[in-house]
Amino acid sequence: MTITALDPNPALVVIDLQAGTAGNPQNPTAHPIDGVVAAAANLATAFRERGLPVVLANVDGMPGGRTQYGEGARAFPAEFSALLPSLAQQPSDLIVTRSTWSAFAGTDLDATLRRLCVTQVVLAGMATSFGVESTARQAYDLGYSVVFALDAITDRVIESHDGSVQRAFLALGQAATAADVVALLPA
Questions:
Q1: 133 falls within a domain
Q2: Residue-level pLDDT at 52
Q3: Model confidence pLDDT, tens digit, residues 134-179
Q4: Which of 76, 111, 128, 173 has the fewest CB atoms found within 10 Å of its own CB?
Q5: Best CA proximity match to 57, nearest among 88, 35, 83
Q6: What CATH number did the domain enclosing 171 receive?
Q7: C-alpha separations of 80 from 19, 20, 52, 95, 123 in Å
Q8: Could you tell me if residue 108 is inside a domain?
Q9: pLDDT for 32-60, tens place per residue?
Q10: CA 87 from chain center: how many Å?
Q11: What per-residue confidence (pLDDT) applies to 186?
């Protein structure tokens, strides 16, 4: 469903736009990363200008457990987790560092957003089918309204991106462009 209104106090959650996931030109994305980052940065600027919460979530490792990719917890080097400079991180931004897919899992993000009376999250970042979708699922389960800024989201694989957008996102929230979200932000 396309969005027609925002709650009075939404928060922007930008997921994994960091050096190790988005800053490597040797590792292409489904949609041009420069455009995705620019759309997320525009959203962050608009939220900050209105005094609304901006959450910059990065990942610094992987939880324990066995997967097809490997076994056990591991940490990523600090330079991997560095947020992209074009996001123009500000002192007022909330930083969530985690070693899980969801920005809510194992963090105090839910408690922080509730203290700030946030009822809706606008999601941007990557990867669509991992961090973004996992965060959206948990946000929805926690009772938040979810908005996907689709031009501010990408994945490594177009089929994965499209699968999330065309299936999961329809059940979890509403979609818009970053410009549409900005136009709907409270004054």
A1: yes
A2: 98
A3: 999 999 999 999 999 999 999 877 777 777 778 877 888 999 999 9
A4: 111
A5: 83
A6: 3.40.50.850
A7: 5, 4, 28, 15, 21
A8: yes
A9: 889 999 999 999 999 999 999 999 999 88
A10: 12
A11: 84
Of 123, 42, 37, nearest in space to 85 by CA: 37
Q: Residue 96 is inside which H or E element, if any?
A: strand 94-98
Query: Residue 4 falls within a domain, yes or no?
Result: no
Please give the average per-residue pLDDT across 7-23, as a whole number: 92
For residue 100, is it within any domain? yes
> Total structural domains in the chain?
1
For 47, phi and psi rounded to 5 degrees?
-65, -45
The Cα–Cα gap between 157 and 155 comes to 5
Q: Is 100 helix (H, G, I), strand (E, B) or coil?
A: coil
Q: Look at residue 68 and tell me whether its pLDDT is greater than 90.
A: no
| Full-model pTM | 0.91
Query: For the chain, give me the number of helices (H) and strands (E)?
Result: 8, 10
Would you state the structure tokens that stand for residue 87, as one six-digit string?
């996001």
Instruction: Tell me which residue range forms the domain holding 139.
Output: 10-62+75-184
Q: Which two tokens stand for residue 129?
A: 């089918």
